[in-house]
Design a protein that fits this description.
The chain is an alpha+beta fold. It contains five helices and seven strands, in the order αβαααβββββαβ. Helices cover 38% and strands 23% of the residues. The strands form two sheets. It has a five-stranded antiparallel sheet. It has a two-stranded parallel sheet with strand order 1-2.
Length: 133
């Protein structure tokens, strides 16, 4: 898929680093990928701290996905449609950074600190201050 395809699905300000993207499956992101990412991240830096906060987790999640793609890609797409997403939470707790992916099920937001899918509200999606694929 192209950046224009992604922007059609997620019409907020987006930054793109590549010209073509493969869609991962949600089952892969929440299964084998999550187990690989969690083991690697916890071994390298351990638990959440102010020096290892949400933006670090989001960036590491997206990079780990791209590393997996680079090691296993058998198709012409430059990258996986997995990136970082910064927004303001509706619960009043302020800004937060998470992962975003365009999967086989559509636009999916994921919490890189625990691997869960996050259902963002339309207002939270529109509050996006930075998103990068």
């Amino acid at each position: 898929m192209s950046p224009a395809d992604i922007h059609t699905l997620l019409p907020v300000g987006l930054t793109f680093a590549d010209t073509s993207y493969a869609r991962p499956t949600l089952a892969w992101l929440t299964g084998p990928f999550w187990r690989s990412f969690a083991a690697d991240r916890w071994a390298k830096v351990g638990r959440y701290t102010r020096a290892n906060d949400c933006d670090n987790w989001a960036r590491a999640y997206a990079q780990h996905a791209q590393d997996c793609h680079a090691r296993t890609a058998t198709h012409p797409d430059e990258a996986l449609a997995v990136g970082e997403f910064f927004y303001t939470r509706a619960d009043g707790l302020g800004a937060h950074a998470i992962a975003v992916a365009i999967t086989d099920t559509g636009v999916t937001f994921l919490e890189p600190q625990n691997g869960t899918v996050l259902p963002l509200t339309p207002a939270e999606i529109q509050s996006c201050t930075f998103a990068r694929f």
